[in-house]
Amino acid sequence: MGDPRPPDRRPPDPRPPDRLPARPHLLVTGGAGFIGSAYVRDVLARDDGIRITVLDKLTYAGNEANLGAIAADPHQAARFRFVRGDIADAAVVGPLVADADAVVNFAAESHVDRSILDPEAFLVTGVIGVHVLLEAIRAEASRAAAGERAASPRYLQVSTDEVYGSVEAGHSKEGDRLDPRSPYSAAKAAGELLVQSYHVTHGTDTVVTRGSNTYGPFHHPEKLIPLFVTNALDDLPLPLYGDGMQHRDWLYVSDHAGAIDHVLHHGLPGETYNVPGDAELPNREVVTRLLEHLGKPWSLVRRVEDRPGHDRRYAMDGSKLAALGWRNRIAFDEGLASTVEWFRANEAWWRAIKSGDWTAYYERQYGARLAGSTEAG
Ligand code: NAD
Ligand code: DAU
Which residue, among 159, 262, 157, 160, has the nearest Cα to 199 in the 3D structure? Predict the structure, then answer.
């Protein structure tokens, strides 16, 4: 007998099923930093019942002001909690993971130049910190197996395209060899490999994202775009490393945060997903465009001694993430224009960061470089 129902002509939903329970409680580590805070703001703004606890050590890069909009909105504040602490501290991490449906780990030391000056914190957070989080998840998996909780928490590790090393040509795919070349990217690769080992050995439900160079509001002014925008606003020199022909692929922060959330909900256990941007550009071109937005002259740009081991190019293939149903929304020129405007409008935010310890860091990183600089041509 034939099926009496009319045929279903709807296109198949390209999106795999949601792997989190309804209205999950997320533990977001490193959620007071640049990308983590964008993730927390965007998820809570959806107002769909998700609760978030942020665990953040508040290093020099962490800033509770990045989450200020949440405290100001009672609907969001009711679903939000902030805990100051270290992901490498098992006593802090254990109870928080016990109360979570998923852990999204943004916590890391994130600046390549600082990893060249002082690498130790990169390893403690990037390797031991990840180990502590994974052990806490393993303990919860045992509780789930014993029927003491519904399911083990899912774990998402936020990683980076830098684990592939410098890519002379073509686009890195997820199965390519890892070839980290800075203490920062070596620590990130080590963290990822640990995550993969827990999936294989213990069956932990893990996913990994590898994001490209991210930019946008609340970006710490140690990084290229915010450093050059804020220096240019003050007519200070812009220290361009070497010939400035290194290529990066730029990704707007809300797209990076959205892609991470998409993988958290839909990624397959044990899988890794590249998160590329839409704009592979040499640094010189990025600087040219941001100076145009600011109405400032190229003469501010100084050619300075290069970063040691400087990766020449990053570029990733995004087809695996696209097949999972994710599309970026913000094109580079649109994102850069709104980023420049945000920095113009939020001077108090970045001037507070560019004070205190900043002065000593700036002198250490740029003092001799700027003294020996030449015209960038
Ligand atoms: P960020 O430096 O702005 O923020 C890092 C946050 O982690 C800060 O709030 C800091 O206080 C916190 N933190 C550091 N160590 C901690 C610890 N031991 N315990 C708890 N909290 C700790 O970094 P970001 O640019 O927002 O990057 C977030 C993540 O994304 C990092 O893992 C980074 O490797 C990765 N990533 C960044 C980019 C980028 O372009 N910024 C691109 C790809 C991947
Ligand atoms: O690719 C993803 C990575 O992007 C992330 O994993 C890192 O956390 C994030 O910091 C970023 O790393 P980069 O080293 O690419 O970003 P940064 O902003 O430090 O530098 C971007 C490019 O600009 C790089 O080629 C170095 C150059 N640069 C940077 C600074 C700070 C300069 O020429 N002068 C500078 O003063």
Answer: 157
